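Input record (one chain):
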Amino acid sequence: QVQLVESGGGLVQAGGSLTLSCAASKRIFSFNVMDWYRQAPGKQRELVAAITSGGSTNYADSVRGRFTISRDRAKNTLYLQMNSLKPEDTAVYYCHAEASPTVEATYDYWGQGTRVTVSS
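The corresponding structure, as predicted from the sequence alone:
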């Protein structure tokens, strides 16, 4: 029922910045966590950053201090601000949300991905 759409990807030079956004088609009630994953060519998808319903955040060691995850409740949008980008950050970035509207059910929502390429 909920669609997530990522945007903001593109080509940037090493050391540059980029901000990704993830817009939800409607409010996600009782969400547990919203986060960003990425997948580089030939590698497994990995968690980049997460934010819980209470506002707590968590980051992968490789991006801590450079990336910032945030959300705007009014706009139903999740953001990932990426600074000091490195070629190793090149990947397709995916937005994800987990919600538990009832005790019996847990739902996962995924965006289609947005490509980030960092040139050396």
